[in-house]
Amino acid sequence: MKLLIGVLSILLLGSFSNGTSVSFEDETEVKVAEMANVLLTHDYSIDRWSLYTREKVSFTPQPLGNTGIMSELNKRAPGFTWGSIEKHDENVKVTGTRMDSEAGSTETLTLVSYPENNRISYYLIYHMEKFGFSQEEWRTTYEQFKSQKSQLVTDEAPVFTCFQGAKNDTMNIVLYKEADKLLEAFSASKVEKVNEETFVSLSAYHKEWKEDLVTNNKRMNLQIALRNTGIGGGITATIGTPIITTEY
């Protein structure tokens, strides 16, 4: 796997970097670089991109219940502004946000508790969204995400990646052919498709990416969605792995 990442890094740097030597430490980094590279080399602006992880977590028994749990969360992830606790039947959810206006990033942390086997279980969701994309600074954002992730969940917690971009000069573009062109740039195999007049979605399998899902007995780990926003509005592109985790 390390050899594969090294080879892919060299291929990406030919069109992605400004000549600075860059090495990739893990598969998520490779995915971020490849997804950004595909959009940029096909003349899309990148409006935002995000990283997302989730995992079932455990907490030391707290005599103060939810108050104690929130105290422990604040130790793991200080600086979040927490909303009110939402209750639905026996499920409880609370969400906190932390914004960095200078860096143009927003972090969201959501804790969900629910009854399971006569006890309370907890599920933690951590999401970091960055507005715009800088070739020089994207790795700083990724390192910040990794650092916070290590304080919240285990190394084995899966990481989802999502990019959203736009292209304005679309007069002669056929939406499905455009989606196919993007998919071809990933060297991925098509699994499922939705082809409508103003919307196209392709699910695919990228054989070099480890994490995947199974849909209709087929493996997939890449999703591309294009939407025509109307006359003069251009095309919006959303690319996610293993699936798109935002509305599109």
UniProtKB/TrEMBL annotation:
Keywords: Signal. Transmembrane segments: none annotated. SUPFAM superfamilies: YwmB-like (SSF143842). Residues 1-19 form the signal peptide. InterPro entries: DUF1779, YwmB-like_sf. Pfam families: DUF1779. This is TATA-box binding protein. It comes from Guptibacillus hwajinpoensis.
